[in-house]
């Protein structure tokens, strides 16, 4: 309900005008019938020298749903955005003491969460803002205030913890550029949330005072320019983060090809283990890969997962052999760079097309002879 409409109805009723005449005048002036009825219904039909306001329900079930979804999607968006920024920092400033490094495919969950949750959050906030513009009293929702204060407490706690961590690292001499960037990321995310919702609460208190004083406002519920700029900056930041994340992860088709090649490497690795076990039992290499289908060797597959063709197996000497497969990606591509590998050595590097790996049976070492004491 507009403050201006509320003030007009209150003043007209205070001067003794009949409700039907007030309604007709407002409709003729262009107000919507629903708004007029709400304004009239805000005052009790009792005999008293001045208009008596009715108590108003704070929240309807539909509005409670919108508020809950908006805050849930806010938390998901903030966490996912932080995960992505942390990953970008790890890519450009890798920790030399940390095994593995940057792993692009680890971004998929955070990307999917942000792509779904953030637009939904914006939509929910737009719906709530639109409803509040028509009826500013909806901003006084108890559920909304509880969720807002909980969010402020969480954000304040994270900010305090972040500052403590920075100071502790500074005092211990472990402050690095990588750590500072991550600490600043946390501070920027939580600080933005804290500042926005604190401003929102202050704005609601101001509107509540204006409503109580029947102070009309020309454009109730409209955001100040600073809030619009802040919202635009957040949207642009999230959009750029998502786009860069998608560039690192690759398209779904590229990911599918990558998964097929990872399966091929996994199959070849299992075959090498099975050949080692076979040689340990028989002291010779298997003539064909079909000899490894025995349950004792734990081979899941000796065929390509996509084409169904058997992997190529070539015996070179009594204890060396080759395994060949046809690959669809190149390990030198960005999807593989700085990615944790199955072995520390780059044994399974390959290009696009047929690649062969020359391998030697890993023979068990002879048991050591205990020394006589």
TrEMBL record:
Highest taxon of source: Bacteria
Domain annotation DUF5671: ranges: 63-196
InterPro entries hit by this protein: DUF5671
Record's keyword terms, sorted: Membrane, Transmembrane, Transmembrane helix
Transmembrane portions of the chain: 64-89, 109-126, 146-167, 179-199, 229-249
Name of this chain's protein: DUF5671 domain-containing protein
Source organism (scientific name): Candidatus Wildermuthbacteria bacterium RIFCSPLOWO2_02_FULL_47_9c
């Amino acid at each position: 309900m507009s403050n201006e409409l509320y003030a007009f109805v209150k003043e007209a009723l205070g001067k003794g005008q009949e409700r039907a005449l007030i309604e007709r005048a407002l409709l003729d002036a262009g107000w919507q019938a629903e708004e007029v009825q709400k304004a009239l219904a805000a005052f009790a039909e009792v005999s008293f020298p001045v208009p008596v306001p009715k108590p108003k329900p704070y929240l309807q079930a539909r509005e409670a749903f919108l508020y809950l979804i908006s805050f849930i999607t806010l938390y998901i968006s903030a966490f996912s955005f932080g995960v992505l920024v942390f990953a970008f920092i790890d890519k450009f400033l890798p920790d030399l003491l940390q095994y593995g490094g940057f792993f692009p495919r680890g971004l998929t969950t955070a990307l999917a969460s942000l792509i779904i949750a953030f637009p939904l959050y914006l939509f929910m906030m737009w719906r709530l803002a639109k409803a509040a513009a028509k009826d500013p009293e909806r901003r006084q929702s108890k559920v909304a205030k509880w969720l807002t204060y909980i969010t402020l407490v969480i954000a304040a706690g994270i900010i305090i913890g972040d500052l403590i961590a920075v100071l502790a690292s500074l005092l211990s001499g472990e402050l690095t550029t990588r750590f500072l960037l991550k600490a600043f990321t946390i501070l920027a995310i939580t600080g933005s949330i804290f500042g926005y919702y604190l401003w929102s609460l202050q704005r609601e208190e101001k509107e509540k005072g204006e409503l109580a004083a029947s102070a009309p406002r020309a454009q109730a519920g409209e955001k100040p320019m600073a809030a619009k700029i802040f919202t635009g900056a957040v949207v642009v930041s999230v959009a750029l983060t998502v786009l860069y994340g998608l560039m690192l992860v690759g398209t779904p088709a590229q990911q599918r090809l990558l998964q097929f090649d990872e399966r091929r490497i996994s199959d070849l690795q299992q075959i090498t283990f099975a050949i080692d076990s076979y040689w340990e039992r028989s002291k010779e290499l298997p003539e064909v890969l079909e000899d490894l289908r025995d349950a004792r060797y734990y081979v899941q597959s000796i065929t390509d997962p996509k084409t169904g063709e058997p992997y190529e197996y070539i015996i070179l000497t009594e204890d060396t052999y080759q395994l060949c497969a046809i690959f669809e990606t190149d390990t030198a591509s960005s999807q593989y760079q700085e990615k944790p590998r199955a072995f520390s050595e780059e044994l399974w590097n390959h290009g696009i097309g047929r690649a062969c790996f020359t391998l030697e049976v890993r023979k068990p070492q002879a048991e050591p002879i205990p020394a006589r004491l």
